[in-house]
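Morning!

As promised:
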Amino acid sequence: MAQFRLREFFFPSLTPRFLIRVAAVALVAYLFFGHLLIPMFIRGRSMEPTYHDGGFTFCWRGSYLFHPPRRGDIVAVKLAGEKVMLLKRVVALEGEEVEFRNGVLFVDGKPLDEPYVKNRFAWDLPPRKIEPGCVYLVGDNRGMPIEEHDFGQTPISRIAGKPIW
Amino acid sequence: MVDKKRLAAGAALAALAIYTLYCFAHLEERRVKKRFAALAEWARKEPGEQPMEALLKARGAQKIFADPCRFEIEAYEVSASVSLQEIMAYAVQGRERFAELDLKFYDVTVAFPEKGLAQVTATARLTGKRAGGGPINETHELDCTLKKTGDGWRFTKIKAVEVLKK
């Protein structure tokens, strides 16, 4: 009996009922992993040491259904679609003023405590106000010249979600 | 009563007809996407590329770009209409700066606002090595315009969208 069950498990009979079940599972998996919990392979070093090149996580699309992004959140930013996204940290919110002075990030004139930043280049950026409906994003890896790091403000509508770990 | 075999054959024929119609309806879209594949191939550089190969590759620009083609890349402070001759010259010079280059496109969405004109958004990912050894890892959202000419689609405008505004 046990042998029969084992054989049925690994080599099931292709009955219509079984095929419908397989199709349903495939459809649910496609919808869930294609639109709700998107697998993400991390390429690049802009979020080190929090995320390393070659790492893996999932992006949860439902993160901002009920509230906007908060300071300190790590978010995935859409480009032309969702196959390639940018992973950055929210450091300032709409209406706030951001500035870099000698590598230290100032929000509304006060230095921001950023324990996740381990290396700092002496970045300098004049103050700028974040437009309505936008957030300011920077990667955790500041150990490079400012010109080589992609950061800045982006509309909240571009944020696809949040990595789950 | 309808024979089961005939029913299956009918269903297969209907599926084939739907697939053929779908292919015809998306023929131009596929041709435009092929231009992006050609652009990626044109930009690709294998390690140890010979100067002659670089020259031949650069000449391939005639099949990809219109004359002139407009480039708008704010991150590099580029905003200019460039002739085919200039594109070829820049391509030869530019390739010398890199030891290895690989360009890939993702999320290519094609729209046809009018006949003979395609508006495309895509994500471009450029990876490789500089001639000095440093890595290249760049990602940009592109907004491109292509025009249909006598012998295919040509890029008339390539604009990099500023997703993160410093």
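Chain A is about 20% helix and 30% strand.

Hope this helps with the figure draft.
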